[in-house]
Amino acid sequence: MKLNNVEHIFFDLDHTLWDFDKNSGMAFNSIFEKNKIGVKLDRFMEVYSPINENYWKLYREDKVTQTDLRYGRLKESFDMLKMSVSDEQIEILSIEYIDHLPNHNILLEGAVDLLEYLAPKYRLHIITNGFKDVQHKKLKNSGIETFFDTVTTSEDAGVKKPNRLIFEKALKTAGALVSNSIMIGDNFEADVLGAQKVGMKAILYNYYKREFSPKYLQVLKMKEIAAYL
């Protein structure tokens, strides 16, 4: 079923195009080896991933700062693993992690094929809650920067998805209308409900394969998006 009157497509970045889990794991592996942190990566990521997801939720809701997020997700992970890591060491790791993260740039399966399919037909854009400098490095280093006409970060907008203001700023920057735009992202609250707040259509890339009402457009694989566009 093709969606009508779409001219502008807005993508989330992490967990939608950029493989956050794999790239994050490689970044941690690098800094743990450098700093002689004795933990098995698989076990660390098993603990870290849900903690990180929760911190991003708190960050979206303005309940923690950027600094709180960077430090707290590591502190809670080490505490859960019963590892004694000093606050000073955690601060170092939190900085080095952000520095190393854009050096690893695996994209999710089908991402490039989809962008190559869409680019001749639509204007493509990014809306992301990720940190501005890091997100731009990810786009450049992964080789997909040239697909996008505009990039709107939460730092640009002063608010985070699902706040309607970030979508309004992205639409204005892109010269797009609500009626001819669609949002594609992995986070139901931030991407789908956020887009719908301003009247945009949305497709959920159900990255974690969670249960959502069938009334929302959703796909399990990136290539399935082409059926709608």
From TrEMBL:
PANTHER family tied to this protein: PTHR47478, PYRIMIDINE 5'-NUCLEOTIDASE YJJG
Organism: Salinimicrobium marinum
Top-level taxonomic group: Bacteria
Gene Ontology MF terms: 5'-nucleotidase activity
Coiled coil: none
InterPro entries: HAD-like_sf, HAD-SF_hydro_IA, HAD-SF_hydro_IA_YjjG/PynA, HAD_2, HAD_sf, PGP-like_dom2, Pyrimidine_5'-ntase_YjjG
Protein name (database record): Noncanonical pyrimidine nucleotidase, YjjG family protein
